[in-house]
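Retry 2 of 3 after timeout on previous attempt. Resubmitting structure tokens to design endpoint.
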């Protein structure tokens, strides 16, 4: 029988031999069970308390615990920061609401006084705004003060969240489909904007501000309106119940510096030869119709053609909403007027065209002919008012003639179709048709002469047409160009009566 000392020696030797095998398992177990206190680790026939493995198993446990604690801290920090940002934003919105209300209380009806000078109003608003912000109980930082001042100023003096878009020269159109859906057009491409109105009431206040400044109104009894901004930008608004998802506001911006003929040539809208030809047509007192679809650039082309009119002539412009930007000195601008709330007092384009004949005009320019005013326009062109220009919505030169005939029939005069076509053939000399391509660019695709009646048909002759044969580049832009067809117009003799001649080289085949 072995002694007690021998048995203790053998037990110690067995513990040393089993230690390398136990350590890796003990490390893993310690990592998993660190939070649950000591435990036994078993390997084969031997059992030992974790005390022997403690130097190897203690290291991973603190690392695992540190990672968990760090994740919890990071999540709590993110939550606290998000809460602080939201609280700060809510405080700014509350401050804006309070300051806005105080401004309205202080200034009252001065904000909507049409007779008050704009500069004086701006000075008064900024002064009161500074006083109201200074009287707030809770202090705010300089950056927040500047932000609140800018947003409230835009809302009071401008048009709220769309004011920065109106200031952006790259934005050409703003489309608002309800208070939270604002789209914009840049470089011919449409994208969504981050700007939003607070609610429907905020959007309606902005629409009312726009239309009231030119003496128009929009309400449930008259839920559609055409208006303009002070810079001439075109505005259309439709409110509920016609607009189902909230008020719809469309603003087509006009450049602060109107485009010139050189700009159209550089954009590829027009060629140099075609520009020289159209300039001669305007100076030669030919009657011109600018046609095209919506957004094709008819008004811009109308502006450019009007710039060719000699400075010593009296020009009368007639529009639904004044958009033309003529630089001549002797210009009389007329604008139609809708009916008042009682349904009376409407003055339409046809009334203005008839009245313009008594104003001794050298030129009559109608922004857009869209109804029975076509008959009065044809009569003006046929009664000595040569050199008149107007625009018409259509898909091509031939469609332009058909649309003018239809609008004349809208006058209810029950004229025979042949008589109408004779009037058109006698009155109109040139049709300039413009198209907007898929890449967003705008091009004049036809310059067409209206010749004469042959039987019951009006004959047309293309002088310049757009050549599509070159196809498109890798960006989808057209490689085509506006080229001469090689045909000489028959109205050259008429132009000579006005002492205007045209270089024959313009009509060379393939001329650009």
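Retry 2 succeeded. Sequence:
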């Amino acid at each position: 029988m072995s002694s007690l000392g021998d048995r203790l020696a053998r037990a110690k030797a067995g513990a040393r031999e089993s230690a390398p095998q136990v350590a890796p398992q003990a490390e893993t177990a310690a990592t998993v069970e660190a939070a649950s206190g000591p435990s036994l680790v078993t390997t084969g026939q031997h059992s030992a308390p974790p005390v022997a493995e403690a130097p190897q198993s203690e290291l991973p446990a603190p690392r695992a615990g540190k990672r968990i604690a760090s994740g919890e801290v990071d999540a709590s920090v993110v939550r606290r920061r998000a809460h602080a940002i939201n609280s700060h934003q809510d405080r700014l919105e509350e401050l804006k609401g309070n300051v806005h209300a105080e401004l309205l209380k202080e200034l009252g009806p001065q904000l909507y006084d049409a007779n008050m000078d704009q500069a004086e109003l701006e000075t008064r608003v900024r002064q009161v705004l500074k006083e109201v912000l200074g009287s707030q109980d809770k202090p705010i930082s300089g950056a927040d003060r500047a932000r609140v001042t800018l947003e409230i100023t835009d809302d009071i003096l401008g048009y709220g969240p769309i004011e920065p878009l109106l200031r952006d020269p790259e934005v050409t159109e703003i489309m608002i489909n309800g208070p939270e859906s604002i789209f914009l057009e840049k470089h011919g491409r449409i994208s969504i904007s981050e700007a939003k109105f607070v609610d429907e009431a905020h959007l309606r206040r902005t629409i009312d501000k726009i239309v009231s400044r030119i003496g128009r109104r929009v309400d449930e009894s008259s839920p559609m309106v055409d208006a303009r901004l002070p810079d001439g930008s075109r505005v259309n608004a439709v409110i509920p119940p016609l607009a189902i998802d909230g008020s719809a506001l469309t603003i087509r911006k006009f450049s602060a510096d109107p485009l010139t003929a050189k700009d159209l040539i550089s954009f590829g809208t027009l060629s140099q030869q075609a520009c020289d030809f159209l300039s001669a047509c305007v100076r030669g007192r030919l009657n011109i119709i600018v046609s095209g679809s919506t957004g094709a650039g008819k008004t811009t082309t109308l502006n450019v053609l009007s710039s060719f009119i000699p400075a010593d002539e009296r020009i009368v412009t007639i529009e639904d909403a004044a958009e033309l930007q003529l630089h001549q000195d002797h210009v009389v601008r007329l604008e139609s007027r809708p009916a008042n709330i009682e349904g009376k007092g409407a003055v339409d384009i046809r009334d203005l065209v008839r009245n313009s004949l008594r104003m001794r005009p050298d030129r009559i320019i109608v922004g857009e002919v869209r109804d029975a005013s076509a008959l009065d326009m044809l009569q003006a062109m046929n009664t000595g008012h040569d050199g008149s220009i107007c625009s018409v919505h259509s898909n091509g030169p031939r469609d332009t003639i058909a649309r003018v005939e239809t609008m004349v029939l809208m006058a209810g005069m029950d004229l025979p179709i042949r008589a109408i076509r004779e009037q058109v053939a006698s009155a109109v000399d040139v049709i300039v048709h413009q198209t907007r391509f898929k890449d967003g660019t705008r091009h004049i695709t036809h310059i067409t002469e209206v010749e004469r009646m042959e039987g019951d048909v009006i004959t047309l002759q293309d002088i310049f047409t757009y050549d599509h044969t070159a196809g498109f580049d890798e960006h989808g832009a057209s490689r085509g160009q506006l080229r001469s067809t090689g045909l000489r117009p028959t109205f050259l003799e008429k132009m000579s009566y006005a002492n205007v001649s045209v270089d024959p080289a313009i009509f060379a085949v393939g001329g650009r």
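Attempt log closed. Residues 4-58 form one domain.
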